[in-house]
Automatic annotation (TrEMBL):
<comment type="similarity">
    <text>Belongs to the XseB family.</text>
</comment>
<keyword id="KW-0540">Nuclease</keyword>
<dbReference type="Pfam" id="PF02609">
    <property type="entry name" value="Exonuc_VII_S"/>
</dbReference>
<comment type="function">
    <text>Bidirectionally degrades single-stranded DNA into large acid-insoluble oligonucleotides, which are then degraded further into small acid-soluble oligonucleotides.</text>
</comment>
<keyword id="KW-0963">Cytoplasm</keyword>
<keyword id="KW-0378">Hydrolase</keyword>
<keyword id="KW-0269">Exonuclease</keyword>
<dbReference type="InterPro" id="IPR037004">
    <property type="entry name" value="Exonuc_VII_ssu_sf"/>
</dbReference>
<dbReference type="GO" id="GO:0009318">
    <property type="term" value="C:exodeoxyribonuclease VII complex"/>
</dbReference>
<dbReference type="GO" id="GO:0006308">
    <property type="term" value="P:DNA catabolic process"/>
</dbReference>
<comment type="subunit">
    <text>Heterooligomer composed of large and small subunits.</text>
</comment>
<protein>
    <recommendedName>
        <fullName>Exodeoxyribonuclease 7 small subunit</fullName>
        <ecNumber>3.1.11.6</ecNumber>
    </recommendedName>
</protein>
<dbReference type="GO" id="GO:0008855">
    <property type="term" value="F:exodeoxyribonuclease VII activity"/>
</dbReference>
<dbReference type="InterPro" id="IPR003761">
    <property type="entry name" value="Exonuc_VII_S"/>
</dbReference>
<dbReference type="GO" id="GO:0005829">
    <property type="term" value="C:cytosol"/>
</dbReference>
Amino acid sequence: MSKKLTADTAAAPASFEEAMAELAQLVSQMEAGQLPLEASVAAYQRGSALVKFCAGQLDKVESQVKVLEGDMLKPFADADEAAQ
């Protein structure tokens, strides 16, 4: 039986990880064809909101990293380069 989207599940997620988990669940349900048309549209809308939330979280983290790195993102060093 499919889980209906309610006001409780439409609330902003508590964390990036929670949003990603909910998004993965929605995608699985939609790919499996478990949802009727109206529920699929609601799931798509919720998924879109979750993607926007995650993108915002990633932007915030990127800004924090830029501050820590002096406004210049640096590529991660390869394991070989780090050993030298």
